[in-house]
Write a structure and sequence with these properties.
By secondary structure, this protein is α/β, with parallel strands linked by helices. It folds into two domains: 4-133 and 313-376, Periplasmic binding protein-like II (D-Maltodextrin-Binding Protein, domain 2), CATH 3.40.190; 134-295, Periplasmic binding protein-like II (D-Maltodextrin-Binding Protein, domain 2), CATH 3.40.190. Helices cover 37% and strands 18% of the residues. Strands 1, 2, 3, 4, 6, 7, 8, 11 and 13 form a nine-stranded mixed β-sheet that branches. It is elongated. Residues 1-45 and 47-51 have low confidence and may be disordered.
């Protein structure tokens, strides 16, 4: 088998060749067309040429969070065209992803609820973030447009506790002066499955509401005080679209793709902010990934006037000890490609891609932790595009 350290350079060259044949360019860092030169710029040696289908015949199965499903699907499709790797990812919820990777029935699990270092060590797992996004309140109220409705943390908690029952409740009208709100029942929609999106959402409510923390708490599955359940972000989005008067919570990409109106949410600085890639990035600005044990990180209710309050990262879980070296090499090459060349696709779906500095931290941990037969699968000195 050829050296794994050459994979990222080879994939980049393949991308360049395919784009050139189509008359286009494969975007690299900074939005410029990627060329064969390395990070050193002029005079750097081109990456070694290989066949386009480097991982032809390799199949990888992963399961877990629905939060990142749109971008994982797009990345997998593009990487398959470049390398032949067939990556099957099923959106079954973070709880299922954690359970199946622990059971070793899949090559990787995905979770929006990070595991603490002690749990990772007990299961022999490595955890690392892939993207950052936002969980957003989505509403279906006749006559209320996207971004027109304002909610405070207390109102959001009160609605999901079942205590604020009508859209024209005086407490809602008090922060929405001039907005016509109907005397319609509020229909709460929540997740029915074990969900990292739910963990982010309920962890946030536990931070901002003492009553929520005491009665419900934050977890992947909770005993909901009110409402109906939908499976996955997809199920919640579908229910909200169908039911006039509904409110639910989904990852932002699902709101955008389904054109469901979002509410503005008041953050800890008192500002009402809209969910955008910029407000998610503002919430993640102070994250200390290098100092976080097991890369455990919670990004809800962060400081900053522009911060979206319900921001979270989505994580990948893989085993430290790998049985199939080629499959593991393909898996790490895929994630490396996502970090280095998947930024534009992530941004187009309103995710915040991980900065190169974070990818460097992650890949150093790969080199220290992930091995097959005792041999490291990702040398830290591997050439980079």
């Amino acid at each position: 088998m050829q050296q794994l350290g050459q994979v990222t350079g080879r994939v980049l060259l393949a991308c360049t060749l395919v784009a050139a044949a189509a008359g286009g360019g494969c975007k690299g860092k900074g939005g410029t067309a990627a060329a064969g030169a390395g990070a050193g710029g002029q005079g750097a040696a081109p990456a070694p040429a290989i066949e386009k289908k480097e991982f032809d015949g390799v199949t990888i199965d992963g399961v877990g969070a629905s939060f990142p499903f749109p971008i994982y699907s797009q990345w997998a499709s593009t990487f398959n065209q470049l390398t032949g790797l067939k990556l099957n990812y099923q959106s079954i919820g973070s709880g299922g992803g954690i359970a199946q990777i622990k059971a070793k029935t899949v090559a990787f699990g995905a979770s929006d609820a990070p595991l603490v270092k002690e749990e990772l060590d007990a299961a022999g797992l490595v955890q690392f973030p892939m993207v950052i996004g936002g969980v957003v309140p989505v509403v279906h109220v006749e006559g209320v447009a996207d971004g027109a409705l304002r909610l405070t943390p207390a109102l959001l908690a009160g609605i999901f506790l079942g205590k604020v029952k009508k859209w024209n409740d005086a407490r809602i009208r008090a922060v929405n002066e001039g907005l016509a709100l109907p005397a319609r029942d509020i229909s709460v929609v929540h997740r029915s499955d074990g969900s990292g999106t739910t963990w982010i959402f309920t962890s946030y409510l536990s931070k901002v509401s003492d009553e929520w923390r005491a009665k419900v708490g934050g977890d992947k599955s909770v005993a909901w005080p009110a409402g109906m359940g939908g499976k996955g972000n997809e199920g919640v989005a579908a229910f909200v679209q169908k039911v006039d008067g509904a409110i639910g919570y989904v990852e932002f990409a699902y709101a955008r793709q389904n054109k469901i109106p979002c509410a503005l949410l008041q953050n800890r600085e008192g500002a009402f902010v809209a969910p955008t890639a910029e407000s998610f990035q503002a919430a993640a600005a102070s994250a200390d990934w290098a100092g976080a044990p097991g890369m455990y990180m919670v990004l809800t209710d962060q400081p900053g006037a522009g911060s979206w309050p319900i921001t979270g990262a989505s994580f990948i879980l893989v085993h430290k000890a790998q049985d199939d070296a080629r499959r593991a090499a393909a898996l790490l090459a895929f994630f490396d490609w996502c970090y280095r060349h998947g930024k534009e696709a992530a941004a187009a779906l309103d995710y915040v891609p991980m900065p190169d500095a974070v990818a460097d931290i992650v890949e150093k941990r790969w080199s220290e932790s992930i091995a097959a037969g005792g041999a490291p699968l990702w040398p830290p000195a591997a050439p980079r595009p």
